[in-house]
Design goal:
Elements lengths: L3 H15 L4 E10 L6 E9 L4 E3 L5 H20 L11 E7 L4 E7 L7
Antiparallel strand pairs: 1-2, 1-4, 2-3, 4-5
Helix pairs in contact: 1-2
């Protein structure tokens, strides 16, 4: 069975691959609908001038794989009792620092994406 680091690496690789030219960081906001089988994605990046800009992910396959990996991460979290008895997260903000090749995931437990 894969561990959470494997999943983080796969998520980071996809975001790295779809990042716009000149991006220093890529930021994914992902939020599951209450049913848990659909996810809203918002993509941003930080450019060389440290300006945050929105970008459209043109790859439906990348979004599909990201959702698969996030579902796998939720399943891993539940199966390994990593919630400490609390409800599972409903979304996350993933930041990939392209310059440092690092990933950070901030898990969210309340709705946070404004439509």
């Amino acid at each position: 069975m894969r561990n959470d680091n494997d999943i983080y690496n796969d998520i980071g690789q996809i975001l790295f691959n779809i990042s716009p030219n000149g991006a220093k960081k890529v930021i994914l906001q992902a939020e599951f609908v209450p049913e848990g089988d659909v996810c809203t994605f918002l993509y941003d990046y930080v450019d060389i001038g440290n300006k945050t800009k929105w970008f459209e992910n043109e790859s439906a396959q990348a979004s599909s794989k990201l959702m698969d990996y996030l579902i796998e991460l939720k399943k891993y979290t539940l199966e390994n009792n990593l919630t400490n008895g609390n409800p599972i997260w409903t979304g996350c903000i993933v930041t990939v620092d392209i310059e440092k090749l690092k990933i950070n995931i901030d898990f969210k437990y309340e709705p946070f994406i404004k439509e």
